[in-house]
Design a protein that fits this description.
mainly alpha; Cytochrome Bc1 Complex, Chain D, domain 2; about 50% helix
Length: about 120
Amino acid sequence: MRYERVKNFVAEWTLSVALAVFIAGCPGDACPADKLVGDAERGAGLFASGDGMNANGGCQNCHCPDASGGCQFDAPNIQGEECQHLDERTRNPIVSHPGGKFDFSDQDVADIEAFLADWAK
């Protein structure tokens, strides 16, 4: 009998945690950077250097200079990546980003998004 109560509690707790993570991970109305006009040239500089805090030289070291991915650590292709995903992976990661957490502003995210959009064309 006690085993059944523990089993039910664990199942309910797991469902509650999964639901909370799902809700927290759902996009809101829009990414704040989507309301800004991105500058692809500035975004290229940020992509090359990270936020200045990353000693390994920025996004391009793992994602390659053209954002096609695979230069290190099986980094994914992020050409054309949108604001919401950039924000979730670099500023507010639920799952740790291998490059760490970046201190990008909304404008930085918009600029990087504009740079990545150019590669997707």
